[in-house]
Amino acid sequence: ALSPNTVCEVGCGAGEILKQLSLMQQYNEVQFSGYEISDDAYELCKQRASKRLTFYKQDLIEDEKSYDILLCIDVFEHVENYMGFVRGLKEKGKLKVFHIPLDISVSSIIRGRLMYGRDSVGHLHYFTPDTAIATLTDCGYEIIDMMYTPSFAELPSKSWKAKLIKLPRHILYKISPKLLSTLIGGVSLMVLAK
Question: Phi/psi class of residue 76: alpha, beta or left (left: φ > 0; alpha: ψ in -120 to 50)?
Fold first, then answer.
């Protein structure tokens, strides 16, 4: 189990992840910090600030501070120079937790869905499990652990096609999350690195 004194999230958005972590009993001695460069997102996150939760409207890489744990949750796929960004985070935390959407699958390529991620949520870069891990190792990180997260289970099924594919995704996720990622998609990769 991780027992940090300080936790930071880069690209914290509305700040909800940090807010929820700060409310957990096991982290009642931890100081939380969130960094956000978007004006709109900063306006949202600063409303969640508390005695142990502080938000900064600045680029973490330009700050001198470092933390016990750095969270980078669904962020670097949005950054133009993503490898420079990931390298810049290396000294900002003793341990790093990355959550990386895995947008490239056989299905996404056949259906021409890669542009959907770019247009709907601003993804500039797309990853498979192997390219996500290669990005981190190429940037000098040592991978400690990793797991797949079922992002398909969290999203509402808007169309009948999305509802229809949910059951095969659940079954395939139980058999092999990596195979699900490769064939159909709908999963992300959580990586603990140093």
Answer: alpha
Cα–Cα distances in angstroms (integers) from residue 34 to residues 3, 8, 62, 81, in the given order: 18, 6, 14, 21
Nearest Cα to Cα of residue 49 among 77, 78, 25, 16:
16
Token digits of residue 137:
């190792």
Q: Which of 141, 131, 134 is nearest to 89 (CA)?
A: 141
End-to-end CA distance of the chain: 15
Would you state the structure tokens that stand for residue 188, as one six-digit string? 């992300």
Residue with structure tokens 């990853």? 127
- Global model pTM greater than 0.85: yes
Q: What is the pLDDT of residues 73-85, one digit of tens each?
A: 999 999 999 999 9
